[in-house]
# Entry
Amino acid sequence: MSDKSTSSKTPAATATETPQVSSPPRRIYPIVKYGDPILEKPGAPVKKFDAELEGLVEDMFASMYAAQGVGLAAPQIGKSVRFAVVDVTGGKNPEAKIVLVNPEVTHAEGEVREEEGCLSIPGFRGYVVRPQFVTVKAQNVKGEPFEIRGENLLARAFCHEIDHLNGILFLQHLGMLKRDMIKRKIKKLKKQGEW
Ligand SMILES: [Zn+2]
# Structure
């Protein structure tokens, strides 16, 4: 569990347990916000595929849904390790749940410029160019290797989350002016105790 301070205004900021039908209660982690150095350093590879990892992955899905996100990387809950969860349906389709452990983009094609946001940078969005198609090589929660192809939003989510595992935030893909403006506003919010 993260001990990083987050705004008390967001529902995800307090650790609570959400009861779910036919599954054990999950821990909702607070989302680490921009400014925390953990978001800007590469995570360590996952080597142990055990019940602890499985539990953590389910907690990540629960935390992501609670925060209304479509992707969440382990550094965003304060764990500097290389895994992320993605569900571009936001929980509407259980089949759409994707766990990426030690993922790598092995192929990218095309370009799409689209607005993007991040749970760790709430309230700010910016246009980021991402590949239209990507192929990702990863392991599942059991450690079994697999390959998955993503298109458009899914490709974007894969790239955004894999960036997180490398300590890269979407801000780094923005133009300097836009990036500096967002950073200035966050600084101001911090000063006011609202970040
Ligand atoms: Zn993000």
In short: The two ends are 19 Å apart (CA to CA).
